Amino acid sequence: MKVKILQNRMIYSSAENFIINFDNNKRALLIGENTAGSTGQPAWIKLKTGGMFMVTAKRVEYPNGKIHHNIGIKPDVFIQEKLEDKINNVDSVLNFALS
Fold first, then answer.
1. How would you classify the pairing of strands 28-32 and 77-78?
2. What DSSP state is assigned to residue 67?
3. In angstroms, how far apart are the furthest CA atoms of the chain?
């Protein structure tokens, strides 16, 4: 059974791994925006200034070698969330999925 997955730029790491499984098997219609493109497992590096620097330390790919790191997983149907929708309490991505 094909499912609909709603996604946006706030989708990271293991949530992206979940989407990859459905996308790779063509079992989902991806709706929304590109995901964040983060593969998780952050490596924290302490800086001499006292700050911290974070970089993802793991590379995750689709089974066919396709990468999403720093790109994100592209939706099948691109719908960008708009400020006016947020103000008016409208979820255009959800509305599309339910139509």
1. parallel
2. B
3. 54
CA 51/CA 98 separation, integer angstroms: 45
The pTM of this model reads: 0.80
Tens-level pLDDT at each residue, the chain (99 residues): 789 999 999 998 889 989 999 999 999 999 999 999 887 777 889 999 999 988 777 778 898 989 888 889 999 999 999 999 999 999 999 999 999
Specify the 3-state DSSP secondary structure of 43: strand
Q: Are 97 and 6 in contact (CB under 8 A)?
A: yes
For residue 65, give both structure tokens: 């070698």
CB burial of residue 48 (10 Å; 0-12, 13-18, 19+): exposed
Please report, for the chain, how many H helices and E strands are present, in that order: 3, 5
- Counted residue by residue, the chain has a size of 99
Q: How far is Cα 31 from Cα 76, in angstroms, rounded to an integer? A: 6
